[in-house]
Each structure stands twice: as structure tokens, then as C-alpha cells.
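Bench notes, afternoon.
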Amino acid sequence: DVQLQASGGGLVQTGESLKLSCAVSGITLEDYAIGWFRRPPGDEREGISSIMNIDSTTYYSDSVNGRFTISRDNAKNTVYLQMNSLKPDDTAVYYCKLGTDYWGKGTLVTVSS
């Protein structure tokens, strides 16, 4: 079975950093693009970042561009999201998605003001 496990969430204060990890098992990460999504409380899920498999081209939404960095370690079958300068608006459950079909369970990030 393909499994994606996001981790690294927690409670931080405004301006602090967190690094999320998404460990992939049951499939070879290097064959797929992978992305991060988030769902703020009471709001819709949004795609915030992705990284391609072929050339590691990255995408960032306007809301996180310049503060978040996505990276992948194919040898470890893991993708990361380094989140800096966190704001209360970044409070959400964060999910990773592999290709078009596979979602991981989320990890909660809470940023206090």
C-alpha cells in the first residue's frame, strides 16, 4: 500500500519556523511530483507548494512564496517543507499529495500571535 505520513507540525509563535516532513512508502518518490496543501480552520484546502520529479522545478502560492521552501530527498523517499516567518494565517492542517492520487494524513500547524 502507498502511504504518506506528514509530520513536524506543532504550536509556534509568529515569526518562528517549522520544518514539515512527508515520508512516502510503498512507491518510489522519484517517479512522481509531490506537493503540499493546507486547510485552515473553517476554510477550503489550498495548494501551497509542489516539486516536480524530473527537474525539481518548484511552485509556491503567493501566500507562502519567499517564506516556505520545498525540497525532496529521493533516497529517503521524503519531501520537506521548510516554513519560515510563520504567521497566524499559516495556521492549518498541512497535507502532502503524491502525483494525482495519493494523499497523506495531515499534520497540524498552529501559529500564535
